[in-house]
Amino acid sequence: MEIEEIIKNASAWLADTFDPQTREEVQLLIDKDPDELRERFYKNLEFGTGGMRGTMGAGTNKINKYTLGKNTQGISNYLKQQFPGEQLKVAIAYDCRHNSDTLAKVVADVFSANGIKVYLFSDLRPTPELSFALKYLNCHCGIVLTASHNPPEYNGYKVYWQDGGQIVPPHDHQIIQEIEKLSFADINFKSNEDLIQYIDKEIDEAFINASVANAGFGAKNKDDFSIVFTSLHGTSITLLPEVLKRAGYKNVHIVESQAKPDGDFPTVASPNPEEPEALALAITLADELNADMVIGTDPDGDRLGIAVRDNNGKMTLLNGNQTMILMTRFLLENWKKDGKINGNQYIASTIVSTPMMKVLAENYQVKYREALTGFKWIAKMIVDYPNQQFIGGGEESFGFMVGDFVRDKDAITAALLACEIAASAKSNGSSFYKDLIECYLEMGLYYEKLISLTKKGISGADQIKQMMIQLRENPLKSLDGSRVIRIEDYANSTRLNVETSTTEIMDIPKSNVLIYYTEDGSKIAARPSGTEPKIKFYFSVKGQLENAENYDQAIGALNQKIDRIIKDLPLD
């Protein structure tokens, strides 16, 4: 976009439609900072896999009361079209981030101004509770103000539909069309306070009970099981300690320096439980107390990080694929023990997660369903297959869902499930870690790794685009000496059999993802993030594990294999 057009877009924000503070901020950019002006106005902030997410400030490419107000006005118009004559209801939650509470009230104001009943949480709450509350209160739509695990300058806006899952086609595209019809002057900010009802304890109580009912399996000797928990300054502190208490866990130690919700996340470089550094304080405390497990959640309480003691007694952070496998296996084992598996059940995961989930499904004679990245696609399965039972499932990015009472990844319930697995294992003379190795002995050794490359701004977006073009137009012939035998391109829904040069169409929605499969069973996926300025590369390799004693050595060999594969990729 040329600078003249950017200045024209920015100048529109000097009109009386916008408040004095916003006008002053934009004028200053026009006068003194053309580079920042370009970043803020070269495009409109868009919906990605996790909704709308971006840094806060004035501008069309920023999170602010006007971009969120315009979204909300468009959704209000769309709801009236979809549910004519009904008393529309929405639920709104928010996390610990700067401005989340005020932005949530702005969103509530716009909905109420449009005659829509609003249930607004009186204080911050985890994202999975919003999904639950939406269904519990029979709402048509739900909104969460959160930027998940992004840095402090970010915020975001997740949109949920009446099934409790995030919006998917056709609603997402149709909502965007409604939003694009509007100007900022069309936003109705004049709230109707009579239509805004604050919610808290009743929903908390219902959610806690449902969480314990779905993830409590009567583990023995809970008094002998020690847990260290960190909320990483986020929302899970409002629910998870009580969930664990209700389930019978008394030996729970909270990392107090990270217990207070704080949008600056002062004790961590990144509030992301996928990163070992985020759980460093919790692991230190666990070592002091000789605790059995560390659980940590991201700011909005949907991602769960787990650290357990390895065979040498060292606290080790497991990856999302590992925890997903063990949690799913535990659910399947209990369903099998209760005689509830009859072929009408399924588990689910995503195209960039471990292939081991499919093997697990085959072992327990349940269906395996695979979706695009993002939990909204797993939630959509529950709508698409109403006569089949969803047992559980997850994705590699530390997300898991137990049953269907919540329709998004749920770190609260998943944390309880993890504790039940570990406590049960300990009471049987095993451990979470040993049970994981047992899975590999049964089904083969799979090992996964993720690399994320951050590419910020306009130039970064161009670099990411070029990297995907390169991988598509100049496909790799081999990786670590193993021939590429299949290439799946989700941008055009095609699967290419390299050996026969034949192409088939995949029955799955389009997405900017490219996956290579090699002759030796390796899988490499490339995908630009939908919510961050990153391109992600997902690696999955397979080996054999003859006995538990060789586990560390076998994992080391697979790690070296991934390092060699990385060298074959055009990552510059």
From TrEMBL:
Keywords: Isomerase, Magnesium, Metal-binding, Phosphoprotein
InterPro entries: A-D-PHexomutase_a/b/a-I, A-D-PHexomutase_a/b/a-I/II/III, A-D-PHexomutase_a/b/a-II, A-D-PHexomutase_a/b/a-III, A-D-PHexomutase_C_sf, A-D-PHexomutase_CS, Alpha-D-phosphohexomutase_SF
GO biological process, one term: carbohydrate metabolic process
Pfam families: PGM_PMM_I, PGM_PMM_II, PGM_PMM_III
Domain annotation Alpha-D-phosphohexomutase alpha/beta/alpha: ranges: 46-184, 206-313, 319-440
Top-level EC class as recorded in UniProt: isomerase
MF-aspect GO terms: magnesium ion binding; phosphoglucomutase activity; phosphopentomutase activity
Listed EC numbers: 5.4.2.2
Cofactor(s) demanded: Mg(2+)
Record family assignment: Belongs to the phosphohexose mutase family.
Record-given protein name: Phosphoglucomutase
UniProt source species: Galbibacter marinus
